[in-house]
Amino acid sequence: MPALTDDAAPGAASVSHGRSDEPGAAWRDALVVVGLASPFVLGVVALTLGFYQIGVLDVMRSLLSPLVPEAAAEVPEIARRLVLDVRLPRVLAALLIGAGLAVTGVVFQGIFTNPLVDSGLLGVTAGAGFGAALVMLIGGGSVMIQVAAFAFGLLAVTLAFLGSRLYRTAPTIVLTLMGILIGSFFASLTSLLKYLADPLDTLPAITFWLLGGLTGVSWRSVPLLLVLTVIGSAFFLLVRWRLNVLSMGDAEATALGMNPQRIKVMLIVAATLVTAVAVSVGGVIGWVGLVIPHAARMLVGPDHLRLVPMSLALGASFLLTIDTVSRSLLPSEVPLGVLTGLIGVPLLIALLRRQGTGW
Amino acid sequence: MSAHKLQATDVTFGYDPKVPVVKGVSVHVDAGEVVFLLGHNGSGKTSLLTCLNGVQRASAGRITIDGRDVYTMTPAERAQRIGMIPQTHVAVFGYDVIDVVLMGRAPHLSTFSAPTREDRAIAVESLDRVGLADFQRRRYTQLSGGERQLVMVARGLTQRCDVLLMDEPDAHLDPRNQFRVLEVVSDLARDHGLSFVVSSHAPNSALMFADRVLLLRRGHTLALGTVEETLTEPLLTEAYSMPTEVVSKVVNGRRAPRAILPRRIDRVPEGVATLALEPDALERPDSALARMVEASRSRPQRVLITGNSGSGKSRWCERLVALAHRREWRVAGVLSPPAMRDGRKIAIDLLDLATDERRRLAELRRGPSDEGPATERWRFDEDTLTWGDEALRRAAATAADLVVVDELGPLEFQRGIGLVAGLELVDALTSGVACVVVRPSLLETALKRWPDALVIDVED
Q1: CATH number at residue A241
Q2: Is A7 contained in some domain?
Q3: Would residue A65 count as lying in a domain?
Q4: Does residue B300 sit within a domain?
Q5: Residue A146 lies in a domain
Q6: Which CATH number is B199's domain given?
Q7: How far B136 CA lies from chain A's nearest CA (Å)?
Q8: What is this model's ipTM?
Q9: Residues B119, B182: one domain?
Q10: How close B91 comes to chain A (CA, Å)?
Q11: Closest Cα to residue B6, out of B63, B60, B73, B72?
């Protein structure tokens, strides 16, 4: 974190319509620190939960065992295997996907100066859905599905981007429009594939994939997800202060000495890679990229210096919590995309009510 | 090169290169100076501003700051020297005021760094300078328009640049806030040597706060100079295509302009004594008109015929001419009878009273026009104007009993084109009666020129 000044208590007496109850900078910084700790705490808790309950100490010992083999000497082998081979990849995937979807939502809202968009805006999700459905229809394996989802996600955004180059004026508006068009096009193609699919076998598979979920996640899914999400997030963290300037619009960013087009292209590429890999592993998980940025803004304000790390942490915690509840507390596992919607929409409505004016 | 802080030379710019909106404009700003850009909507003010700060690239001309060409600088270098304060707008996200002001440090920081403690100190100091020291933790979106504008000024100060461009800082602000913002601008210029270029739709703001004014009209420079040189009735009338009145007041023994007001076209100014007379009054020996004709044998008599548009000024003159012909007077000059269709005036003709020859003078204007003789409503035929001008020159050479000049308008009085021979004729009148048709908005101008004239108000 960059150095922050210790601001005096807000709300001078002369302020007539200011928010005197607004938390000060120190309070917001503290919230970010707590937020950043939450995925780690929740991660350990999630590893204990499941049909086979494992104690916190055993979870910690199991986590240490790859480095210090004698640490897990007293842990039953089945518990150790459950933690390391079954639950850990799924917990990691939930954390990384949640963080990735949330932070790219923040980035897209900032660069498109619109608090109502997420990183699916340019068609990455629709493209990935089509890629996955296509492979399922022709009978590819899970790795093939991931690769195709990732590739078609990137293809959709690339098409939207090339399409927007056809017009020279108002690049942002045209890019948004192209994203919506390309997204709709791929959604139609996916519908066509579903229509063609075997209704007893392939159609349910496609439908379940599109609903999102981490049921099939194994260690094989994690490396690319980990690498792209970490690199992307690191980039967002490094340039996060610039997002403040970009969110004021291109004209002001230019007047403040930036080349908004160049940095926006870099941000869109990074956000698309992160989103594409998240969708390729977890399927279509909606609402995280919209709800979490707003929740984070409510907690720490719109300043991207705090908003970007807070969204990473909140997104990771949110998706992990939902996935853990889904797999360990509910009688039967409900698709993630359904749960994020069922929880996310009422949450967003509640946030909008609290928010009042301004984001 | 020059010693000017910011200098633009022959700048031409258009969003579509074929349709320039700024045409060969030159202007400079010195340290500590406030220069206002005034002009109608679409006159090129904002486009010129965006060229000055290098956001748009001029297609021709040169812009330098401290002698360095702005287009050879990187965007960050430019932003360290020239700041742009946008029109009042509502940001999408409700940043704290201090965070908005901090954005001014962007040109001084690398892409991957965030503001340091020193940057924050600069931002706090800038807020203090615009009088908003207590506003650090207020939400930008919840401020009043005037406060937002001052926050933008503070952001400009945080940029540490010495030229600040402001796009209509007084738009959407109530009079108190307009005054407050411009007062801060004026203080910063005077006390800290900052230079400001301010585009505005409020000539009165320029009157109060400008050191110099650039008047733009359709992308061209109409005038550039001090307030006294530029904010004059003829120039403002032309700049806004609207009759304008400059009210002045004597301050410290000098008459200084104090307010700029639009002038109602169809109203005879207060304090001008008028007579309501029909041409038939000529038949009554004791009427003012008859006595004036009598007096005209020994000394020239000037009459201004005025009245609302459509009140029948031309018809009044026609009737007078008919009476004069019946008395076998020598009549000269020009009449401009309307050409009507469906009860509407669609064109104006010009009639040479000496020869009875008639030509089409003007037609309704369709769309804007850049050059040439035109007023708000009419586009004039240049050949007919030349022909009419010649007719009036001949009329001046003949010793006529009655000369009619219908009419002298903004072309002649303000731009010195059109029937200027009519002006000279009335100026140099040695005997006889000269009747000049003048619209009410030009009556004061005409009376300044011919103070002895009798004014006849033709009522509907």
Answers
A1: 1.10.3470.10
A2: no
A3: yes
A4: yes
A5: yes
A6: 3.40.50.300
A7: 8
A8: 0.86
A9: yes
A10: 6
A11: B63
Are residues B293 and B357 both part of a single domain?
A: yes
Nearest CA distance, B97 vs chain A (angstrom): 11
Three-state secondary structure readout of B396-424: HHCCCCEEEECCCCHHHHHHCCCCHHHHH
Query: Which token pair is A88?
Result: 């850990």
Chain A residues with beta carbon closer than 8 angstroms to that of B77: 257
Q: How many CB atoms lie within 10 A of CB A243?
A: 23
Is there a single domain that holds both residue B209 and residue B301?
Answer: no
B217 and B293 belong to one structural domain: no
* Count of other CB atoms within 10 angstroms of residue A214: 24
Structure tokens at B379: 């586009």
| CB < 8 Å from A in window 107-136 of B | 107, 109, 111-117, 120, 134, 136
Residues of B in contact with A251 (CB under 8 A): 50, 55, 86
| Residues constituting chain A | 359
- Do residues B202 and B68 both lie within one domain? yes
How many domains is chain B built from? 2
Question: Containing domain of residue A304, as a range?
Answer: 44-355
Q: Please list the pLDDT of chain A residue by residue as tens digits (359 residues).
A: 333 333 333 333 333 333 333 457 888 999 999 999 999 999 999 999 988 889 999 999 999 999 988 888 888 999 999 999 999 999 999 999 999 999 999 999 999 988 888 888 999 999 999 999 999 999 888 889 999 999 999 999 999 988 888 776 667 788 889 999 999 999 999 999 999 998 998 999 899 999 998 988 999 999 999 999 999 999 999 999 999 999 998 888 999 999 998 999 999 999 999 999 999 999 999 899 999 999 999 999 999 999 999 999 999 999 999 999 998 888 888 889 899 989 988 988 888 777 654 55
The predicted model scores a pTM of: 0.78
Question: Do residues B151 and B135 lie in contact, with contact meaning Cβ atoms separated by under 8 Å?
Answer: yes
